[in-house]
Amino acid sequence: MGKGCVISLVIFSIFIAIAGTLVVLGFTVYKPQEPKIHVDNINLDNMKFAFNVFQIKFDFNVTLTADVTVQNPNKIGFKISDTSATLNYRGVKVGEAPIPSQEIAPKETKKFNVTLTVMTAALLSHPMIFNDVTKNQLPLTVVLDIPGQVEILGIIKVNVHVQTYCDILIDILQKRLASQRCKSTANI
Ligand SMILES: *[C@@H]1O[C@H](CO)[C@@H](O)[C@H](O)[C@H]1NC(C)=O
Ligand SMILES: *[C@@H]1O[C@H](CO)[C@@H](O)[C@H](O)[C@H]1NC(C)=O
What we know:
Elements: H1 3-28, E1 36-52, E2 57-71, E3 78-80, E4 83-89, E5 92-99, E6 102-104, E7 109-117, H2 120-124, H3 129-134, E8 138-152, E9 156-171, E10 176-187
One 2-acetamido-2-deoxy-beta-D-glucopyranose binds next to β1 and β2.
């Protein structure tokens, strides 16, 4: 083996060792953990309910504001892609709001609000609405479907997908939430 060849081999070995160390570091020290997404509170605003006895018809308006907390436990930034929050009534979409793309710095906890206005026509055309209104319990689900990425050492991108569901029950007469139950699942 020539001298040049040996030097090339040594340089190549050093390069491989450094690359290997970086990859191991990337997956240990910088091993991505799932960002925590939490809905602290859901407020009801401009809630109005009217019942026309003669036409046997209701009218109903409400706007929900969810206080969302995103906690990034990683030593690296978490980038949320453009997405949206949806409001469902018994599997039917009755509201939608955009969630703009944003970056959550390493170890940062960020708060933002999502405001969803019920599309009255979609809600009132559902066959179960009469039943729920007469029981004074309106079940709605707020869905936050949040895709994002964490970037290890600026080279390895890891996709993260967090889904949060909040099942709520609205007490129409009292104009308040009767219950709120949220759960999150994450794929990394
Ligand atoms: C709900 O909102 C619509 C549009 O703003 C309005 O026309 C309607 O009167 C409202 N309903 C009630 C019960 O206030
Ligand atoms: C979210 O809304 C609440 C009241 O509805 C307000 O007090 C709070 O400052 C808002 N948070 C953000 C991050 O805008």
